Each structure stands twice: as C-alpha cells, then as structure tokens.
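haha ok so turns out i had the wrong file open the whole time. this is the CORRECT one, sorry everyone. sequence first:
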Amino acid sequence: MKTVLMVGRAHPRFRERLAPHFRLLELPSARPEDVTPEMAETVTGATTFNDFKPPLFDALPNLKIVANFGVGYDGVDAAYAAGKGVMVSNTPEVLDEEVADTTIGLLINTIRLLPQAENYLRAGRWVKEGAFRLSPLSLRGRHVGLYGLGRIGQQIARRLEPFNVKISYHTRSPKPDLSYDYLPTLEALAETVDTLIAIVPKTPDTHRTINRSILRALGPNGVLINVGRGWTVSEPDLVEALRAKEIAGAGLDVFDDEPNVPAELMEFDNVSLLPHVASASMITRNAMADLVADNLIAFLGNQAPVTPVPECRGLLD
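then structure:
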C-alpha cells in the first residue's frame, strides 16, 4: 500500500477518504528536518494547506504528488516541483460560490454597518439609547470595480448584477465574452469606481498594488473589499487612508500576516474584519477535501489528476 503524508493540519475528511487507499503518516510541523527515514523512504503522495517549500520536496525523494487544500498554492513551489517531476494539484471551482457569497455579505456588512448594529442590539443599547445610527453609505447607485475576474470574480459579478450596480473590472487582459467595462490599469479602475473588490492571487505582480495612491483614487465615498490575498493591500497605507478619511470604509477577510491583524484596523468602526472565512462552511471545506483525495487517488493510481496546477501540466504529456 502506498504511503501519503499529511503535512500540517489534517482535515478529518482526509482520513475518511484516503485511509482505504493509502497508509497515512503525519508531519504536523511541515519542517523538512522533522521528516523521518521512514517518511523519506516510503512517501509518494502528500497533502498540504499551502505550505510546501523546496527543502521539503528534497527531503522526500520518492514523492510523486502534492495535493494542495485550497485554490491558491503560492505556499507550494509548483515550478520547483515540476522541475523534480512532482505533480501539484489544487482545489478550484468547488469553493468559488461560497467565496462569492461571503464577498457579497462582507460588502453589505461594510456599507450598512450590520455587525455594528447587531453588537449595539446585543449590548442592550437599543433599549437604553434608542435606534442605531443611520448608515452613511448604501449599496444603491454604486459602481463596483473587480480587481481580478477569474472564476471567483465572475461569480461575484453575477451576484452583484441583481443589485443593479454598475460593474467594471481590471485584469491583465480583457475578457471579450463578458459585458462588463474593462479598465486597462488598476489606477484607471480605482478612479472610475467607488467600490473596489480585490480577488487576485498572491503573485509578485500583486504585492501591495492597492496602496495609498489607489485608495486616494477610490475617493472619500470609496469602499475597499479584499477577499483575495492579504499581501495585495498595503495595510499601513489603508490605515492612513482611513484615518485621513480618504476612503469611506473597508471590509477584509484576508491579511498580510495571518492570523495577526494590525491593531490599528480594529480601531475603525467603518471597517468589517473577518478571520479568513470566505470558504469556511463545512459543506465547502468537505468538497475541497474530497478534491484533494480525488487527485491523490487518481494520480497514485496511474491516472491523470483531476485538477493539476498549470506549472505541472507538462508532466502529463
């Protein structure tokens, strides 16, 4: 029986799906120095929560596939894996709708101050002080800009359409099959819209691209929502823009140094903060775990993986 190494956190569904097919070992630390001789000799497949660096590949000479739990795999060096002949897979599509749903919820929470209103009620202030204050913003008449329009971005856009808001987007290249207005730069998008939703992956090209200049372009009625990767937003610049009232509010589900959230962001009552929960329903996370298992079972059974990442598709030729 082939051996699969569960690196880092092990989703309970992994054991349920993988145990009938493989011998399972665990490496909670994800550190190559903790790899045992038995692991080095026997492991041919591995699961990971986006944490698999080159030294760990080197410590597992018989490794054939790393199945990542998540769409983003920036913590897995896929190019290095491909160079060693190791397949990498991820879990696209199964979480797209959940993330899009959460994005709309976060947007409404941010604009209408719904978490603050609930806290006001729970603290007994409705009875003692009267009605909660009117929210200064509304979704009505807004112009939403999507920074990124991949699978999740398109799901977000479809959900926005019934709200009768105008939708524009910026990506590296236009998508001619879609009717939304395309802006050639992020700066142009920020200048055009009053609501910016970031849903781009973590790449060198997206590092702190949402900075003070972009936030100023978004304007004093502007709202920033980030459900992509924390490193896309310069958090110090966001804090300063909020203090200077250069934008009207922000909603964040991701942060640059998770789980550490800048204390300054928690000072603002026009900011909605979530602990990276966009895909965090049991149904969706189980579906992601199932796709991890399906990739391992297929590839270690001498079949093509279900969802190989682009860097490794050449290994299938």
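The chain has a mean pLDDT of 97.
again sry for the mixup
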